[in-house]
């Protein structure tokens, strides 16, 4: 309650802006995140695979409040690159926001494209090694677990996974291939 006006205070969140890119990853315009989602515009995204020092992969279940693929499991931290932000800075921001960590070394894994009925993106994959602890303060993660490759295979047989991470990042991190 505002003491001067006596009115309820409403926290205003800044409008998130996103660069829309062409097939050559050149920015063609900047729009709100809401417009990007509504019109399924091609944008930049990052996906960061977090491994423990003993080689297990951190997977998480997304919050039911996520704007795309709510409640599904994911093999990566990550998300949309903000307007004017580069891929590495976005990767650093995303692991800090989602996992509460600030790894020093990010291994760049490559780039790919993904398009389905929900999204159109150009993504870059990264790998970090971090044993935690983790802090899940932004509300995007509902649960986490460390998995071996066999455990990941079993979990993928029984649960739904975010399709862009599986399509783009899994081939870059799966050393069994």
Keywords:
5 helices; four-stranded mixed beta sheet; alpha+beta; 9 strands; Nucleoside Triphosphate Pyrophosphohydrolase; single chain; 177 residues
Give structural notes.
The protein has 177 residues and is α+β, with helices and mostly antiparallel strands. It has one domain (17-173): Nucleoside Triphosphate Pyrophosphohydrolase (Alpha-Beta Complex). Helix content is 23%, strand content 33%. It contains 5 helices and 9 strands. It has helices at 33-39, 87-99, 149-158, 163-168, 170-173; strands at residues 17-21, 27-32, 43-51, 57-62, 73-74, 77-80, 107-115, 120-129, 141-147. It has a 4-stranded mixed beta sheet with strand order 6-3-8-7. Strand 1 (17-21) and strand 2 form a beta hairpin. The longest helix has 13 residues, at 87-99. The mean pLDDT is 92.
- Please tell me what the overall shape is: globular
CATH overall fold name: Nucleoside Triphosphate Pyrophosphohydrolase
Summed up, the helix count is 5
Report the major sheet: 4 strands, mixed
Query: What is the CATH architecture descriptor?
Result: Alpha-Beta Complex
Note poorly predicted spans: none
CATH superfamily: Nucleoside Triphosphate Pyrophosphohydrolase
Distance between the termini: 58 Å
């Amino acid at each position: 309650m505002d003491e001067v006006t006596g009115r309820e205070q409403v926290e205003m969140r800044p409008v998130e802006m996103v660069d829309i890119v062409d097939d050559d990853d050149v920015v063609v315009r900047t729009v709100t995140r809401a417009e990007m989602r509504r019109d399924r515009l091609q944008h930049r995204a990052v996906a960061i695979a977090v491994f423990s020092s003993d080689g297990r992969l951190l997977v998480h279940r997304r919050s039911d409040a996520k704007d795309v693929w709510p409640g599904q499991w994911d093999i990566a931290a990550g998300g949309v690159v903000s307007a004017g932000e580069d891929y590495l800075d976005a990767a650093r921001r995303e692991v800090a926001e989602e996992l509460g960590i600030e790894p020093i070394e990010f291994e760049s894994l490559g780039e790919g494209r993904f398009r389905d009925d929900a999204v159109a993106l150009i993504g870059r994959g990264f790998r970090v090694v971090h044993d935690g602890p983790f802090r899940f303060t932004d509300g995007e993660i509902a649960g986490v677990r460390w998995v071996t490759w066999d455990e990941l295979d079993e979990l993928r047989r029984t649960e739904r996974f975010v399709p862009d991470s599986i399509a783009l990042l899994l081939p870059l991190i799966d050393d069994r291939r």
